[in-house]
Amino acid sequence: MTVFGVNRFKGSFNRRGVMTAMVASVMLAACGGSPSESSGDTVVAASLDGAIEKPNLKFGFIKLTDMAPLAIAREKGYFAEEGLNVTLEPQANWKVLLDGVIGGQLDGAHMLAGQPLAATIGYGTKADLIAPISLDLNGNAITLSNKVWDMIKDDLPKQADGKPAHPISAEHLKPVIASFEAQGKPFNMGMVFPVSTHNYELRYWLAAGGLKPGYYADGDVQGVIDADVKLSVTPPPQMPATLEAGTIEGYCVGEPWNQAAVFKKIGVPVITDDQIWNDNPEKVFGLREDFAEKYPATTAAMLRAIIKAQQWLDADDGANRKEAVEILARPNYVGADAEVIAASMTGKFTFEPGDTRDAEDFNVFFNKFAGYPYYSDAVWYLSQMRRWGQISEDKSDDWYFDTAKAVYRPDLYLAAANKLVEDGVIPADSVPETDGFKGEQTGFIDGITYDGKAPNAYLEKFDIGLKKGQSVTASGVSGS
Q: Where are the domains of the chain?
C-alpha cells in the first residue's frame, strides 16, 4: 500500500498484514481470481469495513489514457487490497459501454461525465446512474488536419521563438470555412459522443471564436442545425484514421489519439482542453444507483481502490508516470505505443514535430481535489446540454441543482476518502471542505466566469447558444 508516495509495508510485515493478506487470498481463491502479477510487494488486504457483498466485478473502459486509475488500481493491487477481484474490459464505443452498465453486464465503467447525467434525465436513454467519483481533470485536445493547419498557421500570432502563441482561437478557422463553403463543401469535425466533454469543449471553442457548432432539436442526435461547423461522432481510437481518410478536418478527443496524429504526421493539435477551461473535469466512474444501494461495502471498497490509484498517479510530482505509461501501453489497456502515450502523460505535450511544450497538468488524477464529484461540475454539463438544445426547454436553477445532486454523489466519495485519511493512506488536506460547489470559476478561453449556483444567469452570458425562452426545430432557433 502506498502512502504519500511511500510504500508503507516495504521491508516489514506485521501480524495484521499477514492475517488480512490471508483473508483476501482465500476470498480471491474462492472466486477463481488472483492479484495482478505486477502488484510487486503490495500487501493484499481484505476490506475491514464490512463484508464485500460482490467481490467479483467487471468494469468497462474505452482505450484512453484517462482510464489509468482503473488500470493502476488493478495492476498495483489496490483492488485486491480491498478484497475485490476486478476484470477490466475494453468497450467498442461509449454507447456500448453505457448499455453494458445499464444492462448489468458491467458493474461500473470509466465514463463520460455527461453520460450518467444524460441517462438520469432521459436524454438518449433512461436509467438511474450515479457518479460517486471523478477520475481526472483535463486530458483532451483539438487536432486539425495538415491541410487545415497549413491554411491557418501563417496567420497565427507568434511567440518570440517563432512558434504559434497559445491558446489558438477558433476564429482563425473562419476563412477556411468560407473557402469550404465557396467550394460547396461542409466543414466537418469529429467528437466522441453527443454528451461527451469533447462535444461540449469543441463547441465551446468554436463558439468562443464566433463560429456556430449547431443545435439539437427534440429527437435529433446529429446537432447540426444552423451549424457553421458540422460535428459527428467517431470512437476515440478511430479518430486518426477518420482524419487521414478526409472524412473530418479535425477532432476533439482524449489521449493518446491527438499525439497519434502527430506521430503519424497527419494532423496538428492546436489547443488542449485546459486552455479552453483550465482544470476542467473530465471522466467519472459511473455505475447504477441500485448497485450502490445493494452493495454498499463493495462500492466503498472500489472507491477506496480508485482513490489510491489516483494518488499513485500524481505522487512525487509524477514520478510514477513512466511506469503508468508502460502499463497503459499494454494491449489489454490502451494498446498504443508507449512513446505516443508518454508524449502527453509525462508532463509534456507535442503540438507538432519540434514544438513540444511543458504541460505539467495535462493529466491530473489526484491533485487539486480531482476525484471529488462537485455538483458545480455536473451543473456545467447540464448547462451545455441546454445551451445546445439537448435539453429542449428552460429549467429552473433548482432543477439543475436537484439533477446534479441525484447523480453526483460526494457523500459516497467522502465516506471512502475519509476512511483512507483515518487509515493514514491519503493526507487530510487532499479531501476538500466544500458544500459541493466550487464557487465562481475563471480560466475559460472566452473570459466568461462560471458560477455553478447561477446556471441560468451563466447561459445568458453567451453570444452563441440558446437563451431563455428559445427552442430549436428543424428550421432553426425560435423564441425570445
A: 2-137+282-373+409-440, 140-278
Structural domain 140-278, CATH architecture = 3-Layer(aba) Sandwich (3.40)
Q: What is the pLDDT of residues 301-316, one digit of tens each?
A: 999 999 999 999 999 9
The single-letter code of the amino acid at 313 is: L
Which CATH code is given to the segment(s) 2-137+282-373+409-440?
3.40.190.10
Nearest to 295 by CA among 4, 47, 64: 47
Dihedral angle sign, alpha carbons of residues 411, 423, 426, 50: negative
Verdict on whether the full-model pTM lies above 0.85: yes
> Which of 88, 84, 38 lies closest to 63, judged by CA?
88
Measure Cα distances from 432 to 131, 370, 410, 429 in Å. Answer: 17, 10, 10, 7
Give the largest CA-CA distance in the chain: 77
* Cell 485536445 sits on residue: 141
Q: Which residues contact 280 (CB under 8 A, 6 or more apart)?
A: 137, 138, 197, 201, 273, 274
d(CA 123, CA 391): 8
